[in-house]
From TrEMBL:
It comes from Prauserella cavernicola. This is Dihydroxy-acid dehydratase. It holds the Pfam family ILV_EDD_C. Coiled coil: none annotated. Residues 360-553 form the Dihydroxy-acid/6-phosphogluconate dehydratase C-terminal domain. The keyword Cytoplasm does not apply.
Length: 571
């Protein structure tokens, strides 16, 4: 055993300080030999009953601990701030950065040699990765896995996506409120994250693709026995990572991020991956820009037929072979020699995973769609960029000119969207302001503005919508998101008025407001600055320091790697 091991600077001393450190843990029943220099593995847990998608992570942590003990390590489980998409207000995104600080500071300030990161619900994955990347210990992630396929009366119920669809039916008068409530428990049948290719499954897929988790991590259902066995293996491998000194930064590289961006296109993954991967890259010092998402993956075909871009759900994706099959199908389009936490390359991890011919994962010769990457738009309406997921939009709206129907903020939207008097038509462009990182605050998932009820009743199923908000990974439509700079940070989105003509041209990557510069300047001088409200607390810190979507909406002072060194002891 090495005297250099990080945890031994806590436990290795024969002095009063070593006594304190060991004695405290012996109070939990740990025998003396646990402090003999064996790798100490933190199990960083986002378990919380306020994050129901992560409610089974205490159980998974037990299986991780078994694997750690089996490999000769000492597991120590600890909680960090969790982020529950279904409950938290005003937006989990506002607290992603706070959770990442919790992770970073807890890892650095405690006697840990390596860490297993347990995440599930959307923001918990990037929060843990961001915090861990700033510390750079040997690290491995374990995702909670998706919930089982939901069904009611023989109809499949996709998480999130099904809710939006059913609520549109309620608003259009074709579903009763009683049936709507009845569907609640049918959609979420078990522990686990959304059963669609929403943000949680997308980020779990990114983690597996980047080589930060064991092979199979993304798709095994939350309650499948194989998820527990994966947890056991993850704990075992964490101990070996410490012995090999295989740090997060060895695996999390420009190449692995490019792999993630490409696989995200192939799986029809969430637009939220953009802000999360940009934020993670920002912690590592790896250069990654918004434009990379378009440049690196524009030509990648959509292979995975999952809601919201396709038909099936995560259980079907697991049965079809999951991410390893997708990686093999993409083949040379990926950096297959990228190192991973298994100690093997990405290509070696997935060797032989060719699938069995399931319709859920298509071949590159027969894709669901060509060119499925996220498109990055620019123009006078989004000088620093905006994004759209063409695979989730009605194709005839990807080139569109229409008159703006403007909502100044979310309250204005809620008050007027279903007003029968609203001057809106199927070819109008719905614009929402004030929903960016600073404006809302917290850049909520409100970018898929509801289609006005009177248009729904007339059979309209998609419209061009533009905002500085995000969109749930389970949502769909011709939705332009993440407009930067946002309206509350002086972006031109703030200057749009009812009746202005907006041109969207996705093939040309263009988002243009047909109003001349002089008129925009006049409007700007009338509108003035958007002051930062004096809220106090974390919100104040967030408002003062959050960056725009095109750089990941992290707090500016959290960018970069600060390492695991601590200059002072505590006693
Ligand atoms: Fe938690 Fe979708 S709400 S994963
Ligand atoms: Mg979501």
């Amino acid at each position: 055993m090495s005297e250099q091991r990080r945890s031994q600077t806590w436990f290795g001393g024969a002095d009063k300080i070593g006594f304190f450190h060991r004695s405290g843990l012996k109070a939990m029943g740990l025998p003396d030999r646990m402090f003999d220099g064996r790798p100490v593995i933190g199990i960083c847990n986002t378990w919380s009953q306020l994050a129901p998608c992560n409610a089974h992570l205490r159980d998974l942590a037990e299986h991780v601990a078994r694997g750690v003990y089996e490999a000769g390590g000492l597991p120590l489980e600890f909680p960090v701030t969790s982020l529950g998409e279904t409950l938290m207000r005003p937006s989990t995104m506002m607290y992603r950065n706070l959770a990442s600080m919790d992770v970073e500071e807890t890892l650095r300030s405690n006697p840990l040699d390596g860490v297993v990161l347990l995440a599930g619900c959307d923001k918990t994955t990037p929060a843990l990765l961001m915090g861990a990347a700033s510390v750079d210990l040997p690290s491995i992630m374990l995702s909670g896995g998706p919930t089982l396929t939901g069904r009611r009366n023989g109809v499949q119920l996709p998480s999130g996506t099904g809710t939006y669809a059913m609520y549109d039916q309620v608003r259009a008068g074709t579903m009763t409120p009683e049936d709507f409530v009845g569907a609640e428990v049918c959609m979420w049948r078990s522990n686990g994250s959304c059963n669609t290719m929403g943000t949680a499954s997308t980020m779990a897929s990114m983690v597996e693709t980047m080589g930060l988790a064991l092979t199979g991590n993304a798709a095994i259902p939350a309650v499948d026995a194989r998820r527990r066995s994966l947890a056991h293996d993850t704990g075992h491998r964490a101990v070996e990572l410490v012995r090999e000194d295989l740090r997060l930064s060895t695996v999390l590289t420009r190449e692995s991020l490019e792999n993630a961006i490409r696989v995200n296109a192939a799986i029809g993954g969430s637009t939220n991956a953009v802000v999360h991967l940009l934020a993670v890259a920002g912690r590592t010092g790896v250069e990654l820009s918004l434009d990379d998402f378009d440049a690196v993956a524009a030509d990648v075909p959509l292979l995975v037929d999952l809601v919201p871009s396709g038909r099936y759900l995560m259980e079907d994706f697991f049965d079809a072979g999951g991410i390893p099959v997708v990686i093999n199908r993409l083949g040379d389009r990926l950096h297959l020699d990228a190192p991973t936490v298994t100690g093997r390359t990405l290509g070696e991890n997935v060797a032989g995973a060719t699938g069995w011919g399931s319709p859920v994962i298509r071949s590159v010769d027969d894709p669901l769609q060509e060119n499925a990457g996220i498109a990055v738009l620019r123009g006078n309406l989004a000088p620093d960029g905006a994004i759209i997921k063409p695979s989730a939009a009605e194709k005839d709206l990807l080139v569109h000119r229409g008159r703006a129907v403007v909502f100044e903020d979310i309250d204005d939207l809620r008050a007027r969207i279903d007003d029968p008097e609203l001057d809106v038509h199927a070819d109008s462009v719905l614009v929402l302001k004030g929903a960016g990182p600073k404006g809302y605050p917290g850049m909520p998932e409100m970018g898929n503005l509801p289609i006005p009820a009177k248009l729904l009743r007339a059979g309209v199923t998609d419209m061009v919508r533009i905002s500085d908000a995000r969109m749930s990974g389970t949502a769909f439509g011709a939705v332009v998101l993440h407009v930067a700079p946002e309206s509350a940070a002086g972006g031109p989105l703030a200057l749009v008025q009812d009746g202005d003509v907006i041109e969207l041209d996705v093939p040309a990557r263009r988002l243009h407001l047909e109003v001349d510069d002089a008129e925009l300047e006049r409007r700007r001088s009338v509108r003035g600055e958007h002051p930062i409200p004096d809220t106090g607390g974390y919100t104040q810190l967030y408002l003062q320091h959050v960056t725009q979507a095109d750089t990941g909406a992290d707090l500016d002072f959290l960018r970069g790697k600060r390492g695991s060194g601590v200059p002072r002891a505590s006693h």
